[in-house]
Amino acid sequence: MRVRRIRAERFGAIVAVDDPPALVAVDRVLARRLGADGGALWDGPESDEVLTAPTEAHVAATERCPAACTGCYADARPDGHEPSFEALCARLESLARLGVFSVAFGGGESALRHDVERVAEHARALGMVPTLSTSGLGVTPARAAAFRVFAQVNVSWDGGGDLYRAVRGYDGAGAAEQAIGLLSEADVPVGVNTVVTRETVAHLGTIADRAERMGAVELQLLRFKPSGRGRLDYLGRRLEPAQAKALPGVLRALSVERAIAIRIDCAMVPLLVGDGAIGPEELVRFGVMGCEAGRSLMTVDARGGVRPCSFWEGEAASRGEDAGRAWAQDAALGRFRAHAASPPEPCRSCRYRASCRGGCRIVAGHLGGDPWTPDPECPRVRALGR
Amino acid sequence: MDREDDRDLSSAEEGRVLSVRFGRSANCSSVGSAIDVLFVSSVVGTALIGALAFLLRRPARDEGDEEDDARPPDPR
């Protein structure tokens, strides 16, 4: 097995391998065998609460986007801010110095940047693995070939025609489907991002089947978040309680009945374990992560501001050009870590706490006015509240 | 089955795999986790983790195996 990179951590090390792509956490004994030297890190307890650096960074390459999706978490607009190539490179260099493994570029519509491939090449030259999320706008045959610089490109697609329009509020399914096809033909590993709403949840099987037929290797399911324009119609879009309750069974069926890989996002972990069928040790063993903001994730917005996650709308107090300082000292990152380390009940005594880390702060903040309270849509929180 | 296969593939003496996260994180807005592997049996899951530990240790054992003889380029 080819080890691409190894980074010492308090518990041992994180090892990046490429075939299959994975991040493997190993203990100090195995880390040492693989050539890592934890130095002073290994003098203390073998904690995994705080990592030495993010494993992945989300970097907005632009705020510009012509799509006008009604639920856009970034409130992206055609005249949004777009950082210069040099500014983006400075942020990437800072993230690389910190020890970040991978960078996911988004926005805004990053594929409409004429130089996004060069930005990705710079990330690769710095030792990081670049990926991209796109609506499909800007993906031509030539650009699809150029996008081979990305380890994977995820295209936002919530199903065909009317379903896509119902979720996104604009008619973009065709562009997304064309992009998936072009990227697949160009041998770019392509995933599909699908937002799970009360409209799409009944169609996830069909969406997975079509995504696979179009050439996608992965279906990434995203919980709808009340952030940006997504706040405006959140209550009308989120899953109904009965749909949330049925979701674990839906995810199980998607996973066992199809070849396409199924992923869920951090905010969906409380819903995945809502029926208690999966043991908490399995989540830990296979790195299924809940809120990783401030632990393995840091984001840099288009203006260079650092945030714990892309949906967090608080004032950015740190800069992406000084990622090391941000990781060590940023108050918002620290607040997310403190919440995960000591969440309120019922999360504190929940058997899934180590992976879930207290549910989604964005949902909690929107619905209850306080992000440091339990995720009110978590079925376990809901059941205990009755 | 050779002698390697007879050993505990994730022993404390040889080092353990604590967890594994499969796949690329290609979504720009939130952290993703592969869930397919959650639905395999616990026996298969345990074997998978053990096999990973074994494969990771192989470079140190099989000197001269060019395919797998990968030393980490950037240990910190």
Set down the secondary structure blueprint.
The complex is a heterodimer of chains A (386) and B (76).
Chain A: E1 3-9, E2 12-18, E3 21-27, H1 28-33, E4 56-60, H2 85-98, E5 102-106, H3 116-125, E6 129-134, H4 141-146, E7 152-156, H5 161-168, H6 173-185, E8 190-196, H7 204-214, E9 218-223, H8 234-237, H9 241-257, E10 261-265, H10 269-272, H11 280-285, E11 297-300, E12 305-307, E13 318-319, H12 323-329, H13 331-341, H14 353-356, H15 361-368, H16 379-385
Chain B: H1 3-6, E1 17-22, E2 32-34, H2 42-61
User: Distance between termini of chain B?
Assistant: 36 Å
Largest interface: A-B, 91 and 47 residues
* Rg measurement of chain A, Å: 20 Å
Order of helices and strands of chain A: EEEHEHEHEHEHHEHEHHEHHEEEHHHHH
Number of strands of chain B: 2
Q: What proportion strand of chain B? A: 5-15%
Query: What is the alpha-carbon Rg of chain B in Å?
Result: 15 Å
Structural class of chain A: alpha/beta
Average per-residue pLDDT of chain A, rounded, comes to: 95
Q: Tell me, what's the shape of chain A?
A: globular
Q: What does the oligomeric state look like here?
A: heterodimer
Q: What structural class should be given to the helix and strand makeup of chain B?
A: alpha+beta
Helix content of chain A: 25-40%
Mean pLDDT of chain B: 71
